[in-house]
């Protein structure tokens, strides 16, 4: 950091390398959220970031951040099967200083469910950011019902498949719009 005539010059880099989520749950979350004690995972988080440029007098520095959670399992004591997840995401500013965020890959699957998604938003902090997504969902209802044996579903069958693709402005998101 260097301060010059009302502005601050920033040149920084940071990283979190292979931080185990289980350690976070053990050391912090379980004291605040009792339900966290039922969660087990081998997930790790890695994050890298770079921030360079001037801050102040209407300017913000260039920011680039990436987040990675490699293919991992998550289980909950009250759910019959574990969930496999993976995530790659990024965020940063463009040449005009607008903040953008992307989910480059989000995948989740378990017994009876496969889900994948990419998407994001440009100018996410602007007045009306445009959000885009592209994904896939497949669910086998009879298999999903076995994940929650305590809810008492006698029998359920069927398959749901959907290709998800769309763009929507934040101002267009409302309960009314989803109901149509």
Sheet with the most strands?
10 strands, antiparallel
Give the fraction of residues assigned to helices.
Answer: 10-25%
H-E order: EEHEEEEEEEHEH
Class inferred from helices and paired strands: mainly beta
User: How many individual helices?
Assistant: 3
Number of strands: 10
Radius of gyration: 21 Å
The span between the termini is: 51 Å
- Overall morphology: globular
Bin the strand percentage.
over 45%
Low-pLDDT runs of 5+ residues are none
Give the rounded overall mean pLDDT.
87
Description:
This protein has helices at 21-32, 141-145, 175-179; strands spanning 2-4, 7-20, 39-41, 44-55, 62-76, 83-93, 99-110, 113-122, 130-140, 159-169. The protein has 180 residues and is mainly β. Strands 1, 2, 3, 4, 5, 6, 7, 8, 9 and 10 form a ten-stranded antiparallel beta sheet that branches. A hairpin with a 2-residue loop joins β1 and β2. It starts with a strand and ends with a helix.
Outline of this structure?
With 180 residues, the chain is mainly beta.
Please give a handful of descriptors for the protein shown.
10 strands, 57% strand, ten-stranded antiparallel beta sheet, 3 helices, mainly beta, single chain, 180 residues
Task: Give the helix/strand layout.
Layout: E1 2-4, E2 7-20, H1 21-32, E3 39-41, E4 44-55, E5 62-76, E6 83-93, E7 99-110, E8 113-122, E9 130-140, H2 141-145, E10 159-169, H3 175-179
Antiparallel strand pairs: 1-2, 2-4, 3-5, 4-5, 5-6, 6-7, 7-8, 8-9, 9-10
